[in-house]
Write a structure and sequence with these properties.
By secondary structure, the chain is α+β, with helices and mostly antiparallel strands. Helix content is 37%, strand content 14%. It is built from 19 helices and 17 strands. The chain has an eleven-stranded mixed sheet with strand order 3-5-4-10-12-11-16-17-15-13-14, with helices on both faces.
Length: 559
């Protein structure tokens, strides 16, 4: 240890002509020599340049640790993670085998084929389902139509990683045969869809959008793929995601929003949002850990549902954060999202994903709810701030009031969720530990200080005690949130505020709804929030808003 002490006293790193040079440091500054010494304790061997890149992250983590230490944590407060001693076989034994229905959908008017079949691109799932049910079109015709659009517009949007054409045509023909024989499975029967390419599908690559995994083939179907197949839906494409579920840059380029192809679609459910917005698929499945459904839904002007944590099985999906990852649909409307969620939940809990065993109820439609009787809050302070989309958001609140909804002022818990963000990066670093230690993270496209390679290296220095303390504070946050929402059915929030981080930590469901355009002609959204496991009421309120407006019916002028 005596040999190591002088290194701890050296200045931080400077790099000139590839050489490491020491310079004077502040007393509390994290330096490269410190990290070079510390990594020996963990058996790591990062270069001086790599260690230098971690310093800003580590300083931020330390600020979070200090904030957490100021929170009163009695011994009785347990971490917001549970230990389940049951092996998979015991969990499976306790999962009911029967499927269930989410109830009846609202009546829909008579749906007819458009005079120009190109109009089908922007029909809702509900409308397309009616065309199939009434045999005005076949699934094979519909599947061929959407495959053609995917091939036509992907060169502009870069939203497709793999077309599953052979599988799609097999599934479409099967759907047509079943519908013809009177074996109708429901409103998704014969409907084409796309899945974010972090969900596995037998016989096809599952690339996670990342260079080190671009040839990966997983011999299983993800739970969402299984359950949508059971509903009769047709998988036509595996869609892009930012590398390892960050942003919109992947190994094939940058996914674009069809509203302006010079701009990114945001992410990480980049291809899912872009493809739905451009009318290349009627719906798609994405995931969110910290904004990856809400953000691309906004950039692409579509409806994106982030269900309650644990509502939808993540079996067969890439893990980024086991305590924060959530899977959900991106579609044209709240009603479409509800139909897809019903299919994803029809088989009940999935023993392969223990989080699904937590749900105290089953998802059911609540479209018969009188929205005037719902107790709806709004984040008064958040809406009083100055931000670019404020006018559209305030107009949304006015629409709700005109519908007879009484909006009650509401505030978020006092605890700041920002200090807990490193929960995600710690779990992500664990998920991709081998990638980091092997050095294969150097193959990834983005290598800046904010990209995963540097974040994962930085997170190797997060002490286990600090991670557990963060999870204990998260438990307090969950209780505070529950107290704040007592008596409320839903609440309204700007799409990008402290609410986004907070509710991804507490697991509450959210739906991002288009609510206008910016002066530059780009879409905006607002977020409707619900109580845990109460997506039915949340989507009923969202549908009422969409029935009263036409923002969900807008689509981009893609050439």
């Amino acid at each position: 240890m005596k040999k190591l002490l002088p290194a701890l006293l050296l200045g931080t790193a400077c790099f000139a002509a590839g050489a490491f040079v020491a310079r004077p440091t502040a007393p509390d500054e994290i330096t490269v020599p410190m990290l070079r010494t510390a990594q020996q304790l963990f058996g790591l061997n990062f270069s001086d340049a790599q260690l230098d890149s971690t310093r800003r992250n580590l300083s931020g983590y330390r600020d979070s640790y200090e904030a957490i230490r100021k929170v009163n944590l009695p011994n009785s407060v347990a971490p917001a993670v549970g230990f389940d001693p049951r092996p998979l076989r015991l969990r499976q034994a306790q999962v009911p085998s029967a499927t269930y229905s989410a109830g009846k959908l609202p009546e829909t008017g008579k749906v007819k084929l458009p005079a120009n079949r190109d109009g089908l691109a922007f029909y809702t799932v509900r409308q397309l389902g009616e065309l199939l049910r009434t045999k005005q079109i076949t699934s094979e015709e519909l599947t061929t139509f959407f495959l053609a659009r995917l091939k036509k517009y992907d060169p502009q949007l870069h939203c497709v990683i793999t077309l599953t054409e052979e599988l799609a045509m097999q599934q479409a023909k099967q759907a047509d045969a079943e519908i013809k024989a009177g074996k109708y499975r429901g409103p998704l029967h014969g409907i084409p869809f796309g899945a974010k390419d972090l969900f596995s599908a037998k016989g096809y690559k599952t690339t996670w959008g990342s260079v080190p995994y671009k040839d990966q083939v997983l011999d299983e179907d993800a739970a969402v793929v299984e359950r949508l197949r059971a509903a009769g839906a047709v998988l036509v494409a595996k869609l892009t995601l930012g590398e390892l579920a960050q942003g919109d840059v992947w190994f094939g380029g940058k996914t674009r929003t069809p509203w302006d192809v010079t701009k990114g679609s945001s992410g990480s459910s980049a291809g899912s949002a872009s493809a739905v917005a451009a009318g290349l698929v009627p719906f798609a499945i994405g995931t969110e850990t910290l904004g990856s459904i809400v953000s691309p839904s906004t950039a692409c002007g579509i409806t994106g549902l982030r269900p309650t944590y644990g509502r939808v099985s993540r079996a067969g999906a890439m893990a980024l954060s086991w305590t924060m990852d959530k899977a959900g649909p991106l579609a044209r409307s709240a009603e479409d999202c509800a139909m897809v969620l019903a299919a994803l939940c029809a088989a009940g809990p999935d023993a392969r994903d223990p989080a699904t065993l937590l749900a105290p109820n089953r998802f059911e439609y609540a479209f018969g709810s009188d929205v005037k009787k719902l107790r709806v809050g709004y984040l008064k302070t958040a809406f009083e701030q100055n931000y670019p989309t404020k006018a559209n958001d305030l107009a949304t609140l006015d629409v709700l009031r005109k519908l007879g909804v009484e909006l009650v002022p509401l505030e978020l818990p006092a605890l700041s969720p920002g200090m807990l963000r490193f929960v995600l990066t710690a779990e992500g670093a664990a998920a991709f530990d081998e990638l980091t230690r092997s050095g294969r993270d150097g193959q990834m496209v983005l290598q800046n200080r904010s990209a995963w390679p540097n974040t994962f290296r930085s997170s190797r220095f997060i002490p286990a005690v600090e991670y557990i303390q963060a999870q204990r504070v998260r438990s307090l946050l969950i209780e505070q949130m529950d107290a704040q929402l007592k008596g409320f059915d839903c609440y309204i929030a700007p799409s990008f505020s402290a609410n986004l981080v907070l509710t991804n930590l507490t697991g509450h469901p959210a739906v991002a709804l288009p609510n206008g355009l910016t002066t530059a002609g780009l879409p905006t959204t607002i977020t409707f929030m619900g109580q845990l496991y109460e997506e039915g009421k949340l989507l009923a309120l969202a549908k009422a808003y969409q029935d009263a407006t036409d923002f969900d019916e807008k689509h981009p002028p893609l050439q």
